[in-house]
From TrEMBL:
Gene3D superfamilies: 3.10.450.40. Residues 32-45 have a biased composition (Basic and acidic residues). Residues 52-101, 137-191 form the PepSY domain. InterPro entries: PepSY. Keywords: Signal. Residues 1-23 form the signal peptide. It comes from the Bacteria. This is Membrane protein YkoI. It comes from Cytobacillus purgationiresistens. Residues 25-48 are annotated as: Disordered.
């Protein structure tokens, strides 16, 4: 009788253990080997209050590289921490920095010589952003939010062909959609799944 009771209890215990482990939290080990609980749910930019805004991030890059022109600005999250990645060039070198929006720590990520066919202002001419003429990222997000209620996963601002665009990434479960927004007018020009 005892064997039968134990045998019948095993499926019930397995069901209980599986249901206890279906939440959004996961256990991971930190660098000291201690177990910590992490939330696996990705953040939604609609629900964030960032400590550093677009203009402050631009100023950080300009302070680090005063002679460089900005060619790309991106905001995305990495393990629930939002960060700006900003790229730029001068006549000989490409630069990239990363800014943690919580700690405001600025890391110089890359300084790399341009290829010979990109030097002497050619890359700067082709990729430089006119930051005085673009709308703020909040306006691009506002335009996208009128089209969908899905979570905002981040955005990128850069020149492509003859225009300057925000690419706003929207997440619905495991599916991402990119909305291409004209950075001068705020008009959605394309939607890519």
């Amino acid at each position: 009788m005892k064997k039968w009771t134990i045998f019948m209890s095993i499926p019930f215990l397995m069901l209980v253990l599986v249901s206890c482990n279906t939440g959004d939290n996961q256990t991971a080990e930190n660098e000291n080997g201690n177990k910590t609980e992490q939330n696996s749910k990705k953040p939604d930019l609609n629900n964030e209050n960032l400590s550093i805004d677009f203009n402050e991030a631009i100023d950080e890059f300009s302070n680090a590289y005063p002679d460089a022109s900005i060619t790309k600005v991106e905001l995305d999250s990495d393990l629930n921490v939002w960060k700006y990645e900003i790229s730029g060039v001068d006549d000989t070198t490409e630069y990239e920095i990363e800014i943690n929006t919580d700690s405001k720590v600025v890391k110089k990520q890359k300084e790399e010589a341009l290829d010979k066919d990109e030097t002497n202002g050619i890359e700067r001419e082709n990729k430089q952003l006119d930051l005085d003429a673009v709308i703020l990222p909040e306006k691009a997000i506002e335009a996208v939010s009128k089209e969908t209620e899905d979570e905002i996963d981040g955005w990128t601002l850069e020149r492509e062909n003859s225009g300057t665009y925000y690419e706003v990434t929207v997440r619905n479960g495991n599916s991402d959609t990119d909305y291409i927004v004209d950075a001068m007018t705020g008009e959605i020009v394309k939607k890519d799944n």
